[in-house]
Design brief:
single chain, alpha+beta, Aldehyde Oxidoreductase, domain 4, four-stranded mixed β-sheet, 15 helices, 32% helix, globular
Length: 602
């Protein structure tokens, strides 16, 4: 299983400015401001309170700036101290590609046991992770691989083992999915292989083994609010899977060279940091005397829309126009001891902390209204659309702005800091049992492809998804995140191929030698349907995380291509990613190329 380059638009960058008190301020392109603060303090021999890290936004991250932004910020800070002046460090694209770590490449061995009905009885997998020259986040990535080794399936007997291998590559690091995609690819390969051996469709095995309510994951956590079957069945019905299957079969009978393939890809992805201590967040809210609102959280905006979600939460809680709300930069002085914006948890954790802070201010305001208007109870007091209502009737000439001004003059605090820690999560690494995730995200994708079996090229015709968003905070943002993740996931398993020489030096070190999906290699059509009636008590307003789970839908494209190839030539299944056009062509004609009578050109 190949690696993947993050290829964020903005390369690694930092600006360090010496401060008057002997400290330093760093503007860093990082997903982990506190990690930068901690490391820089150690490098400079300073206490952390003399290192201020400020992050306004990133030009993309995808995990590549969770840990690996830290050394570049520390370098800039050290130079700034030595030169006693501002220092800006920005990597060129070539240097960024050459120096930084990628998604971890893996290889794996597996055994899978099924009964005659297609129920999976046992599964064993051994994962070999290419960590690079030092650990970085490799052990945490490998741990999540093991947690996601059975994808969306209930398997009663499971044994998974991971070995992190030291190699001569730059240290590989976090990347969207954080080891989960590699684990899922292996179980899907095992199911595909088993289906071939048994002479039944892979989707038949997949469907028979989907998780059900109150099943147990092999690491001891009970599966609750399970939507795997709901998503699968809705996708089959909504997108007319059986009809598509018949259309694919009819197309393949009529065409000798062009072949279509179709696959279903269910997902189940756990949400939380698997290192429990990281599941905490803080928020700081100020309401100014003109009624405008300022918000600080630990969430780093990197194009995923988390700032807009924070504004949505505050707007809904206070019932004010979203234009009144400003999100401040992420700053270690305003919000300290931050967890990185990673693990798809930023909106959940920071949103919950923000919700607590807003509700505490709101409670003070409601109590103030009760006292000011000499009411007996707060039960019927409501602030709605910047108006104050009592028993459903508006108090005349008493707007949100007037309320805030009066509260200030009455010495009511209009600021609040709040803290949130994800409850009831733990994992005992001695017993390999626990509840490492607050909840799981489910979904199913149907992917259709067309392969030109003369040239080995392929097009992704469509990816049609039913996804469990919970109660989405912002459907436009969430749908966009899902679509982007799907394309990125397809790229990982199809055209994005990393190449190194024997010394570990990157050969695919430019955009001419490393290909990412463009408009021509992206799916011709992406449809994303929201699963209805999904609840999640761990997310703000019942929302669910969106950043990483849809990435795994890209795995479906790989197996759809294999299905199309099988229609042309009954070859042995190929489990080697990425499945580039060259690999497709070579494997379609593998028997002919390796036979005694080789093909001879005219």
């Amino acid at each position: 299983i190949g690696g993947q380059e993050h290829l964020y638009l903005e390369t690694q960058a930092a600006l360090a400015i010496p401060a008057e008190d002997g400290g330093i301020k760093i503007y860093s392109s990082t997903q982990g401001p506190t990690a930068v603060q901690r490391a820089t303090a150690k490098v400079l021999g300073l206490p952390m309170n003399k290192v201020e890290v400020d992050v306004l936004r990133l030009g993309g991250g995808f995990g590549g700036k969770e840990d690996q932004a830290t050394p570049f910020a520390a370098m800039a800070a050290l130079a700034a101290v030595k030169l006693n002046g501002p220092v800006k460090l920005v990597l060129s694209r070539h240097d960024d590609l050459f120096i930084t770590g990628k998604r971890h490449p893996y290889s794996a061995d597996y055994k899978i046991g099924l009964n005659n009905e297609g129920k999976i009885i046992a599964y064993e997998a051994m994962f070999y992770q290419n960590a690079g020259a030092c650990a970085d986040l490799s052990t945490a990535v490998l741990e999540r691989t093991l947690f996601h080794a059975t994808n969306s399936y209930f398997i009663p007997n499971v044994k998974t083992t991971g070995i992190s291998c030291k190699t001569n590559l730059p240290p590989n690091t976090a990347f969207r999915g954080f080891g989960g995609p590699q684990g899922k690819f292996v179980i899907e390969s095992a199911i595909y292989k088993a289906a071939n051996e048994m002479g039944i469709p892979a989707n038949e095995i997949q469907k028979k083994n989907l998780l059900k309510e109150n099943d147990f994951f092999y690491y001891g956590q009970k599966a609750e609010r399970v939507n795997s079957i709901k998503c699968w069945e809705k996708a089959e019905e909504l997108y007319s899977f059986q009809q598509k299957l018949e259309e694919v079969e009819a197309f393949n009978k009529k065409n000798k060279i062009m072949k279509k393939g179709i696959s279903l890809m269910p997902i189940c992805f756990g949400i939380s940091f698997t290192s429990s201590f990281l599941n905490q967040a803080s928020a700081l809210v100020h309401i100014y005397t003109d009624g405008s609102i300022g918000i600080s959280t630990a969430a780093v905006e990197m194009g995923q829309g988390v700032n807009e979600k924070m504004r949505n939460i505050a707007s809904r809680t206070f019932s004010v126009n979203i234009d009144k709300i400003k999100i401040e930069s992420t700053n270690t002085t305003r919000v300290a001891n931050t967890s990185p914006t990673a693990a798809s948890s930023a909106a959940d954790m920071n949103g919950n902390a923000l919700l607590i802070a807003c509700n505490q201010i709101k409670e003070r305001l409601v109590n103030f209204i009760r006292d000011k208007f000499e009411l007996t109870s707060t039960d019927n007091i409501e602030v709605k659309e910047e108006k104050v209502l009592v028993n459903g009737a508006e108090i005349k000439d008493y707007s949100w702005n007037k309320l805030i001004w009066d509260a200030y003059f009455s010495r009511i605090s209009l600021s609040q800091q709040a803290y949130y820690a994800t409850p009831k999560i733990y994992f005992d690494r001695d017993k390999n049992q626990g509840k490492p995730f607050a909840y799981h995200v489910y979904g199913t994708a149907i992917t259709t492809v067309t392969v030109d079996c003369l040239r080995g090229t392929y097009t992704i015709d469509s990816v049609e998804v039913v996804h469990d968003f919970g109660k989405s905070l912002n459907p436009i943002i969430d749908k966009g995140q899902a679509e982007g993740a799907i394309v990125q996931g397809i790229g990982w398993l199809t055209i994005e191929e990393l190449s190194q020489n024997e010394k570990g030096q990157l050969l695919s070190n430019s955009l001419s030698t490393y290909k990412i999906p463009d408009i021509y290699s992206a799916p011709n059509e992406i449809k994303v349907e929201f699963l209805e009636d999904s609840e999640n008590p761990f997310g703000p307003f019942n929302s669910k995380a969106i950043g990483e789970p849809p990435f795994m839908y890209g795995i479906g494209a790989y197996f759809a291509i294999l299905n199309a190839m099988k229609e042309f030539s009954p070859i042995e299944p190929l489990f080697s990613a990425p499945l580039t056009h060259e690999k497709v062509l070579m494997n379609l004609y593998k028997k002919k190329i390796n036979s005694p009578t080789k093909m001879i050109s005219n």
